[in-house]
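User: For my dataset I need records formatted as: sequence, then structure tokens, nothing else. Please produce one.
Assistant:
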Amino acid sequence: MTAMAVKGKDMSDKVYKYLILGAGPAGLSFANKLLELGETDFLVLEKEKEAGGLCRSMEVDGSPLDIGGGHFLDVRRPNVNEFLFQFMPEEEWDKYDRDSRIQVGNEVVGHPIEANIWQMSLEKQVDYLKSIATAGCNIGKEMPEEFINWIYWKLGDRIAEDYMLPYNKKMFGEELNHLGTYWLSKLPNVSFEETLLSCLTKKAYGTQPGHAQFYYPKKFGYGELWKRMADNLGDKIRYNVAVNSIDFETKTINGSYHAKKIITTVPWTEFQTISGMPEEIQDSLKELKYSSVVIEYFPEKLDTQAQWIYYPDEELSYHRILVRHNFCPDSAGYWTETNKERFAGQKSSFSYENKYAYPLNTVEKPETVKKLLEWSRTKGVYGLGRWGEWEHYNSDVVVDLAMQLATCFSDET
């Protein structure tokens, strides 16, 4: 069925109970949870020809490659995994202990850096310990408000200058002070005492980072999971339908699709025409920023056991690599992830650009998104997931939120 025929069909008076915008992890999880709860009156609209969003995969050089960057299924949410294993059973996954590293100068240490300074040369350990001991947060200095000063205050000048500042510039852009500091509260305290203890005992300390253990499919890319979830929806999903306009008063999309409730998982900045939204809120959408990344594949096999490696070196265009042969069986090569602003042109046989990769945590974002989501809910429109809520959520978090929202709506009826 052509896109025009689909549009013509929906010029009727049909009003869906739920209209779901986007068939990435958020939209697919919400829709499939509705089905599980016995709800069938919904439709999913997806602008691409296949589902999966940032978690899509395709075959490159004879093996799967995740075109949205590095995506893995965290083990920490059993309820999420139980739900997803309905579509791709657990026996189709391998389980890994995370091995991620950071190239700091000419040394490679484990991630996170604050827990693995003990892996550096003795001279560097001393330098880092001195830096941490005099960090602002460890000597009682007042917490600064600007991003760059906050990093120095929290982590000390060596971690700031060798890793955090150059890495974040590569990932999010040169002007770091347009980012807020509210999202950095999750960074661990890097105390002199704990760091010294780790150097003396030669082992990491503190809590494990996300994906300390993770699942990855044995025979497929991560995108296979989301394809199967889309297939489970049958004719309740329509592809090649770009969402261009939204009318909040009539809860109508593209002038054609009508609903009692709209769940949007697509970037708010993608709406070309918005009706029924206060001018103040509509103007604030211009403040929502994001970064774009380019994924590029290289066939060489690397001599490392790491699954991914971070590169703060500003001489390198990319900020991290995913070592495919260390988590995707019977594969070779690796792929890089590069901020589009730093991408100097394709250097291999395959590259893929993701316009919407990471929502940026700008200073204005919390207030902008809070007002947007609170107001839109009064109109029966709900933001969900990385782009609906403009938060840097991993896929397991998105699935959890989608399941909660679908259950909440079910409980209302």
